[in-house]
Write a structure and sequence with these properties.
The chain crosses the membrane at residues 9-27, 72-89, 101-123, 129-148. The structure is a single chain. By secondary structure, the chain is mainly alpha-helical. It has 2 domains: 7-90, no CATH class; 92-153, no CATH class. Helices cover 61% and strands 0% of the residues. It has 4 helices and no strands. The longest helix has 28 residues, at 96-123. The two termini are 21 Å apart. The relative contact order is 0.15.
């Protein structure tokens, strides 16, 4: 099966988009961790809204210093799109063997990802994580497996 994929020069565009927007998406969280600000998840409401603070105590700040929740989420989506562009780009020398390596890497990464997901579900059934964590994990797993297979063979 021959899948139409992007030309090789899209790898540079994809990695540039990924790095740029991953840095922008993670900058607020990095800054919050650096300044020891209490983390409030952008995906769910906090359980304690700190109404019981006494005089002189301050409420923890949210970690969105420069960008809002929606903008940070958009940056995450764009970084995943950049990684997807990188994944769909051809190698410099594209032949049947590279196609076989790509298919084997997809197959192995799906199996590993399903086993990890099943393990997470078995030990923590009510884990509430956004979908972009799983997408990023799968894409990075595929790229790591593909690069290892390409170097070994």
């Amino acid at each position: 099966m021959n899948i139409q994929i992007l030309p090789n020069w899209y790898k540079k565009i994809g990695i540039l988009i990924f790095i740029t927007f991953a840095i922008l998406a993670g900058s607020d969280d990095f800054r919050a961790g650096w300044n020891s600000v209490e983390y409030t998840s952008p995906y769910k409401s906090p359980l304690n809204n700190h109404e019981d603070t006494t005089q002189g105590e301050t409420k923890p700040e949210t970690h969105h210093f420069y960008f809002g929740k929606e903008t940070t989420h958009l940056f995450s989506i764009l970084s995943i799109a950049g990684l997807f562009i990188y994944m769909l780009s051809k190698e410099k020398i594209e032949d049947d063997y590279i196609n076989k390596l790509r298919a084997d890497s997809f197959q192995l990464s799906i199996l590993i990802f399903l086993l990890v997901s099943l393990g997470i579900y078995a030990f923590q059934g009510n884990l509430n994580m956004p979908l972009d964590y799983f997408l990023f994990l799968y894409m990075m797993l595929f790229l790591i497996i593909f690069s290892i297979k390409k170097r070994v063979y």
